[in-house]
Amino acid sequence: MAYTVPKLDDYSPASLDKAVQELLTALRQEADAIGSENDWKEFRDRWMARKNGILTQVNDLWLKAAPGPSKRDVGGRVNQLKGQVEQAVEAAQQRTSGSSSKARLESERIDITLPGIHPVLGAEHPVIKTMNEIVNVFRAMGYSVAEGPEIETDYFNFEALNFPPNHPARDTQDTLFVAGQEKKQQRDRLLLRTHTSPVQIHAMEKQPPPIRVVVPGKVHRADTADATHSPIFHQVEGLAVDTNITFSDLKGTLDHAMKALFGSNVKTRFYPSFFPFTEPSADVQVTCFKCGGKGCRLCKMSGWIELLGCGMVDPGVFKFVEKNGYDAQKISGFAFGMGVERITMLKYGIDDIQLFYQGDVRFLQQFA
Ligand code: DAH
Questions:
Q1: According to the model, what pLDDT value does residue 315 have?
Q2: pLDDT for residue 99
Q3: What is the per-residue pLDDT for 170?
Q4: For a pocket test of ligand 1, which of 156, 194, 195, 270 has the largest count of ligand atoms closer than 8 A to its C-beta?
Q5: What's the whole-model pTM score?
Q6: What does the domain layout of the chain look like in residue ranges?
């Protein structure tokens, strides 16, 4: 039989105790019987509905009807009951919502034994890969790595590298100038660096000799894109300055580097050349890796392939950093610079430089 709130005739403490006990027993039994969210809603309304819920009835039948002297006692008990009912309703709600979230988890069960979806792994771009290889060859010989700005002043890109103003050697570097610089002195005018060589000057300004440094970086030239030209490309520069550095050190260092990059079979030769910032200057050529030196289309039947420029640092360059300990009477050094795209193309037999910049995954995947 469902519990109903009795009318009270007897307001003695003993009789009140009994009535309270019966109500709490009913509360506990009904709470225990709740199995679903719907059950819980019914339970809540039966006990707490403002209109005719059991608490309201208790208020009307017990408290309001109590004779004056008992009001205080009954009021205390009814207040306490209110708290107990609220607690029971809340606890029951937690139990039922707990069981329904269990059901939700159940419905969301996943099969962890299914094979996963493999994310496609990216890979180093071939140009960056080659650049890192070159840098690592020199790091292994004790060189440190430096970088410099891509927007340079005329001073660093040309003047301090011994290209005098208006010298024709400047024309060999098709320079992109920043517009609107005419009011500045020539040496302060901004341009996009045409080579990584200006970082030689930055490095020597920062650090007195001895110095051994390699500089990977991006350079810019006003070239129209075609199979062998790109207006943006990459170089690795090198600089070594110390006491008693000779051309033999330059030859030994670069011969070792070329063998490390292209295999121990390649031979190198140093072919006279000109750069304003080195004297003497040379182009480094390696035996053609396609024909091994016999002569083929790749090496234009010469058996040799030109890979980089180098030379002994011109005393005219040291003049610009003399105050930082670079006294051409006491020290000497060599420098070199190479194009990373060109070396990558030769290494992998790629015949169009534009392939590096098109982002075609079918091309790039081959280097993964
Ligand atoms: N900076 C030259 C260029 O871009 C390459 C080069 C040649 C760098 C000789 C050097 C060097 O350091 O000694 O054409």
A1: 98
A2: 63
A3: 86
A4: 195
A5: 0.70
A6: 13-107, 126-367
Decide if 210 contacts 234 (C-beta within 8 A): no
Which residue's alpha carbon is at the smallest distance from atom 7 of ligand 1?
309
CA of 143 to the centre of ligand 1 (A): 18
Alpha carbons 269 and 284: distance in angstroms, whole number:
6
Long-range contacts of residues 313-317, Cβ cutoff 8 Å, at least 24 apart: 313/200, 313/239, 313/241, 313/277, 313/278, 314/162, 314/276, 314/277, 314/278, 314/279, 315/279, 316/162, 316/276, 316/277, 317/160, 317/161, 317/162, 317/200, 317/201, 317/277
Q: Quote the ligand 1 centre to 217 CA distance (angstroms).
A: 13
Residues with CB under 6 A from ligand 1: 195, 197, 237, 275, 278, 309-311, 335-337
291-326 pLDDT, tens digit per residue, is: 888 999 888 899 999 999 999 999 999 999 999 999
CATH 3.30.930.10 fits 126-367, yes or no: yes
Cα of 126 to ligand 1 centre, how many Å? 22
**Under-70 pLDDT residues of the chain:** 98-100
Confidence at residue 150, expressed as pLDDT on a 0 to 100 scale: 98
> What is the CA(356)–ligand 1 centre distance, in A?
22
Output the pLDDT for position 100: 66
